[in-house]
Amino acid sequence: MQLRPAQHQIVDLVQSTPRCNVFVPMGFGKTSSVLIALDELSLVEEVFPVLVVAPLRVANTTWPDEIEKWPQLRHLKMSVVTGTLTQRKAALKTRADIYVINYENLVWLDDYLGEDWPFVTVVADECSKLKGFRLRQGTKRAQALAKHIHRHVKRYIGLSGTPAPNGIINLWPLQYFVDAGETLGRSYHAFTEIYFRSERIGADPHAVRLIPHAHSQDTIQQKIKPTTISLDPADWFDLKEPIVNRIYVDLPKKARTLYNNMESEMYVQLQNSDVEAFNAASRTLKCLQIANGALYTDDTSTTFEELHDAKIEALDSVIEEASGMPVLVSYHFKSDLKRLMKAFPQGRALDKDLQTIRDWNAGKIPVLFAHPASAGHGLNLQDGGNIIAFFGHWWNLEEYQQIIERIGPMRQAQSGHNRPVFIHHIIARDTVDELIMARRESKKAVQDILLEAMKRKPAQ
After folding, report:
1. Mean pLDDT across the stretch 365-378?
2. Mean pLDDT, to the nearest integer, of 413-419?
3. How far apart (Å, rounded) are the C-alpha atoms in residues 186 and 237?
4. Same structural domain for residues 174 and 261?
5. How would you classify the pairing of strands 78-81 and 98-102?
6. What is the C-alpha to C-alpha distance for residues 171 and 392, in angstroms, rounded to an integer?
7. Which of 231, 251, 280 represents a domain boundary (last residue)?
8. Please, which pLDDT band fits residue 143 given cuts at 50, 70 and 90?
9. Are the C-beta atoms of residues 186 and 150 closer than 8 Å to each other?
10. Fewer CB atoms inside 10 Å of the end CB: C or N, the chain?
11. Do 96 and 18 have their domain in common?
């Protein structure tokens, strides 16, 4: 496999700049670019061992999968430091080039290693999760990493999506991990004093928000430019076509067993009830529900049992990588919507109220949940955003095409937006999700795909 032209820019920055931030949208190949850059760099200087800090799903799957995907990287040894205490300790004792840990375990790692910090390089994937860092306060996990980043670490690489204009307030902590405050101010307070003004919200004099000055974004961008790469998709992609990204999740062991039972036996036993499928159509429906993370336990589709959060964790990564840009989320089941509203309270559901559409197009809704059947012909959503994530999948090709068209390339261009459309498919591996994807990409009938799929052996 070969790097794409845009990826060479990332490799060049990582190799030439010991401490840097890579702010590019999901789909540019940040992970493989960093791995190749470090592997090449190791021929001339010490870069290993590397500590990669990432969200749990990304730590468990994305980084290991990337090494397997690239033959030239398979000589690198990777150890994933997640799971139980015993598993984490064993993973740290395993001889490897790269150790991958999730953000939630940073405090434990700091306590466990103390001053015996062995990592030469640190890569913070989705580094926007460090935005809570402050010198005296802030999140404990960011503090745990910051303690070592300028004392024991030779190279640091932060990875995130391109920050939206309303997200520049979060750039100080991300840049602090690069240069200890040299560029944007030695403290968060100093940063906000220079680049923002306070605006009171309502009658409470203590309720204020920080508004950037007119010059702030350009000034900040110029200051961080020597240590930052930010690629504009318009320079690298054909804006007439959307940029499609597949995000695979693996069903947890218990959910996988339930899925296999439903697929082969048309019956599963849950904690509080038994669920049976009476025909092939019902079986497919229930397999889709399990893939999404919740299974209806009655015939009225009102009661459901939650099974896993694999897709919710993947969507969280998409929203995090969007760095403040609004995200349109397509769901299918009402159980999906209930779980999504709970997981992302900042989100709103697309309803019949015209004000919801106005608020979305005005940029007031960071996450909009929409059912494809309710986001069909006539709705104009393109002003609100250019990112859509498919949490759930369904066979109806017209509905699928219509919800994409709400923010599609043509509508973006018609509205004067010179920006690409990103489509993120969150897919449960070895499930009906993949069959639906195949249906969209081929001319096969639904029945033919299902019959072919039933011949394969269920995933273990």
Report:
1. 87
2. 88
3. 38
4. no
5. parallel
6. 33
7. 231
8. very high
9. no
10. C
11. yes
Residues 351 and 203 occupy one common structural domain: no
Q: Are residues 156 and 291 in the same domain?
A: no
- Point out the least confidently predicted range of 19-23, 159-163, 391-395: 159-163
Give me the domain span that covers residue 280.
236-460
Average pLDDT over residues 331-348: 96
The rounded distance, in Å, linking the Cα atoms of 230 and 21 is 9
The answer on 289 and 192 residing in a single domain is no
What residue has token string 């639906």? 436
100, HSE (Cβ side, Cα atoms, 13 Å): 22
Beta strands 348-349 and 19-23 are unpaired
- Alpha-carbon gap, residue 290 to 433, rounded angstroms: 11
Which tokens sit at 441?
């990409």
Question: Which of residues 231, 254, 282 is at a domain's end?
Answer: 231
How far apart are alpha carbons 349 and 11 in whole angstroms?
Answer: 40
Structure tokens, 14: 């990582």
For residue 448, the model assigns a pLDDT of 64
Q: In what order do the strands lie in the sheet with 367-370?
A: 243-249, 422-428, 387-390, 327-330, 367-370, 348-349
Q: Quick one: average pLDDT of 355-376?
A: 92
Both 203 and 321 in one domain: the answer is no
245 and 374 both lie in a single domain: yes
Do 226 and 282 have their domain in common? no
| 194 vs 190: CA distance, rounded Å | 6
Provide the CATH number for the domain around residue 361. 3.40.50.300
What DSSP string describes 314-361? Answer: HHHHHHHHHTT--EEEE--SHHHHHHHHHH-TT-EE--S-HHHHHHHH
Report the range of poorest mean pLDDT among 46-55, 143-152, 289-298, 447-456.
Answer: 447-456
Query: What is the tally of structural domains in the chain?
Result: 2
Tell me the per-residue pLDDT of 181-228, one tens digit each, with 9 for 90 and over.
999 999 999 999 999 998 877 777 777 788 889 899 899 999 999 999
How far is it, in rounded angstroms, from Cα 336 to Cα 103? 26
CATH, residue 60: 3.40.50.10810
Cα separation of 438 and 34, whole Å? 31
Dihedral angle over CA of 63, 68, 70, 72, nearest 10: 110
Q: Bridge-partner residues for 100, per DSSP?
A: 52, 80
Rg (C-alpha) for the chain, rounded Å, is 23
